[in-house]
Amino acid sequence: MMSAKEILKLWVEAFNRADIEVLINLYAENAINHQVANAPVEGRNVIKKMFEAEFANAEMVCKPINIFEDGDWAIMEWQDPKGFSGCGFFQVKEGKIILQRGYWDKLSFHKLYEIPL
């Protein structure tokens, strides 16, 4: 079975291709994705809709700065090509992401990508 760090690397590759099908298959059926700036999203189908909306709003690229692993957790500091940065925490059980937490500045992101709030 793949480690949390290996799953995170697959996630980054799929995210950077905006490959929603590969992305959502990395999540457990009842996974939770909670970006600090937004309400938690629960369930693979709802997470899929979240990614569809996000990729429709901006061309996002995740460049890992640091990736750490601690047991079933993978932690990533990231930046995008425009210098926007954040941090993500991914808990992996049985080869699937069960919990994702992300920290980033929503207001700065919307301004940078000219997305209305």
From TrEMBL:
Pfam family, one: SnoaL_2
Organism: Pedobacter rhodius
Entry superkingdom: Bacteria
Sequence ranges assigned to domain SnoaL-like in this UniProt record: 11-98
Annotated protein name in UniProt: Nuclear transport factor 2 family protein
